[in-house]
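Q: Structure tokens for this one, please.
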Amino acid sequence: MSAVIHFQLAAGFQQAAPAGIGGGNLFRIQGAVAVLAALYVLVRGTQPSFLLAAGVALASLVAVIAYRYIQIPAIGPIPSMYEPVWYTAKTITAVAEGLALILALAAYTLHRKSPR
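A: Here is the predicted structure, written as tokens:
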């Protein structure tokens, strides 16, 4: 869900900062990484795949919360993406990322405890 929303919102965020990497390209990269992590979990279903999925979800969740509450300045070609509002797509994305993090950590824990 998070990847789909990031792909849908990418064009609008690219217009805000067309120079450098741009917010839209960052959204596309995040969406692609989330899809690749999900495929890795589906294909392998191993501890490393669950940890990768948890890492992607955590990074995405931290980013959406940080850019909501902290005005982080532009860092080189990465634009400032401060957006001090919650709207439906952003809320759904944050919830999906939180659930993905919890599920990936639960899968990792259960996989560790299961007999081989």
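A few notes: Residues 5 and 102 are 20 Å apart (CA to CA). The mean pLDDT is 90.
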